[in-house]
# Entry
Amino acid sequence: MFYVIWLILTSVLSVLGIVRFKPHYHNDDMASPLLTDITTVTVFLPCYFILLWLLIHIVYAHVNSLKIKAALISFFSISGFLLSLLFLDFYSLTFRTLISFVLMTVTFIYFYITAFIYRKSNFFRKN
# Structure
């Protein structure tokens, strides 16, 4: 039960973080680009990567075929990482790659915690 509550709570909070703090660099009335960058790095991208790790966890936990599982996880990881590079428009590709890699690595903790909760839940099938 805690597993389901955990998934719902983290997905709702992540979606709210994404919707509320989506970067708007092309707005003419943007008050502070630095504030937009700070909220993008501290709220928006971590929420984005948490949802990405949630999707990867669902594939990892519920797809039985190893080939399909590997293909889907690879696809979601690579495409999610590449898409994250688009969110910091004004910076060099090297800086965007570094920020995205660091945040994807830090939010991997969410995947680890979710996998731990999943293994302790009734949903985990012991082989």
About this structure: The chain has one domain: 2-22+37-120. The mean pLDDT is 87.
